[in-house]
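User: Could you check the structure of this?
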Amino acid sequence: MKQMITLLLSTSFLASPGLADGGSADPKKFDTLYPGKTFSPYAKRSFPSNVYWGDTHLHTGMSLDAGLFGNTLGPEDAWKLAKGEEITSSTGLPVKLGRPLDWMVLTDHTDLMGFAIDLQAGAPNVLANEKGAEWYAGFVAGGAAAGEAAVDLITNFTQGTLPEEFLESYSTGAQAYDGVWERIIDAAEDANEPGHFSAFIGFEWTSVPKGFNLHRNVMLRDGATNALQVSPPVTAPPYGDTDPFHLWKWLENYEERTGGTAMAFAHNGNLSNGWMFPIEDTYHGGKVDEEYVRLRARWEPHYEITQIKGDGEAHPYLSPDDEFADYENWDVGNLDITELKTEDMLAGEYGREALKRGLLLEEKFGINPYKFGLGGATDSHTALATAEEENFFGKSTSVEPSDSRMTHPFVKSELGVIEGYQLLAAGYTGVWAKENTRRAIFDAMARKETYATTGPRMTVRFFGGWQFSEDDLRTRTPAFVGYEKGVPMGGDMGQQTSEAPNFMILAVRDPIGANLDRVQVVKGWLAADGSLNEKVYNVAWSGDREQDASGKLPAVGNTVDLEAASWANTIGASELATIWTDPDFDPAERAFYYVRVLEIPTPRWVVYDKVRFGVNIPEGSELIGQERAYTSPIWYTPQEN
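Assistant: Sure, the predicted structure tokens are below.
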């Protein structure tokens, strides 16, 4: 009993310093002892302490192409699945996520809203048109026929040859159009549960002139009161415009009219044939001038860098010294393969190159239009946000799980083909936020405190500054010192004259996923001679491997069992952490840094299909891959003379 009393007194004393001698509590005495500034390190915390997982890009059967593919699910179904419920897919298969999401943006296409619903119903105005009747027949036939009909619809849309009567009946202000928008809003409001799940109202602005992908997704921070005051903009003339200036003006008008807040973010620059990240001329005949960089920086603080239609971080042609730059590249041509890719187009398509180009434009205009945070998404047109390799339901209902889905090409033309087995089961966005609400998650994306993964839910922290030391890794609550000494992912370190910055990096494997292979820092910078440069550094890795003279590491190994569609976590590490200082720092050069985390190799979805259906895997398909995460960058800006 005496021992218990002693412990209680001791605890009481530690909790109230100064009270034992009759003084008052002085919170400042905790400054050097507890980063949280109070005895409880979790009290009085102002920084975001939770990572919330979401999908920024998903389509239901109300999107024109998804509906023709055969998707009969609506937004209500999509929200149910995302929140963890089991539903039935459009092809009659039961489906459930391995783990529910924390938030999502539902982004049905704005152009021709309502058309898919009427097409599926065989509405008289649809069947009266020759093309409408042809597409309806494809939908009724289903499978490959539905896929071919949908691709034909997409081609007519991208080439500007849609029937005029469809544009008039399914554009902004039309009854069918506005009715779908109201349903989207109502479904999001019903699904939204502040503190538990954040359902964002959004849409995809589908600019794809001549097949060049210039899509932007739009995300509203607001609820129905604001969203019902507007209708989303379309891109097909004469009712809309494919120029991003048209969208930026809509966003400005939205905020002025409603008092709300919105953002846009691009995706799949790899299908733009060089037009996604211009530095001189824009696709629409304009110039990348001060107005362009100002508006793009204002309205597009985020970029969807990885998703089902190819990974968009890097390309081996642009990054020949990066051994991991060849991850799931799509480089055949534009979206409908009506124009093939040439090497000179690639620099305007990939995220890393865009970040580098942003430094050049910032030097010229004082504003960086490509200073964006990074995220991942599915872009599934099945209404199913399935980014798990073993639970992958494809891009469209025509290629939902079956023994033949790998034989269906994604896009095929006389010029080339993107095979169905090249689809990625990707990706998700991790957001560091204080709570699970629309406001908190939107604001985290606006300040770029986000990271992309190709599906796994790794926990990654990334801080930059000048004061980190190895001792800072001795704590199990590193975020306290991270925010105290530096800035998080998406931040700007400010200006320093001579000392090289250092970074605190921590990565923990997905609790039910694969071990980690390595952590890398990707640096890009603008040299004094005006050249854009990059370098990839291995900064932490598993095992006792050693770098060679060029900084390369031996491969981590491979435990994949192709016959069982499995792997063993007998290699790799459960967590990796390091303090890294830039060895090549020049205080006069603009630079950015971001972290890339690689898992050990694991099977792709095609291997799971082989095991389940006994199908032959098509020649050329990748059987294994190294899932990865990309953090938003941290920027360094030199002092002005």
